[in-house]
Amino acid sequence: MSLSHTVKCFLLVPLVSVVLAGCGAIEPPPPSYPHATVSFDVTVPEETPPDVVVTLVGSDPSLGGDTAPGFRLRRYGAHYMGSVRLPVGAEVSFELWVDEAWRPELSAEGTRVPRHSFRVDGDMTVTATVARWGEPGQGPQ
Hints:
Blueprint: H1 3-26, E1 35-43, E2 54-58, E3 71-72, E4 74-76, E5 79-87, E6 91-98, E7 103-106, E8 116-119, E9 124-129, E10 132-133
Parallel strand pairs: 1-9
Antiparallel strand pairs: 1-5, 2-3, 2-6, 4-5, 6-7, 6-8, 7-10
């Protein structure tokens, strides 16, 4: 190996390392989607049996994507609660069900309650009060 060949190799090494190090800088950072913690606090009628499961079936995939089984809430006295991470700015809607026999939420007059809806503006608590539960039937599709 001649001296000029050795010099060329030493000059080539820094050039290759600069090129390889620069390759990672070409790729943009992965997109960042801000999320918020949304807590649900649902008050149920006094006559709700303590062993039932209250399910929230909502439009976001973490809430079931509008299909069963949805998102199950945990009982704390007369309240059922749970938290999920949802994208900030998302428009979310949901229904409440007792899922052992898919009994829907009803108004005090006995009619189906319209879907609850909200916009995720940051960490927040969504509250709902169930007046009464309907008769067993076919659950969310």
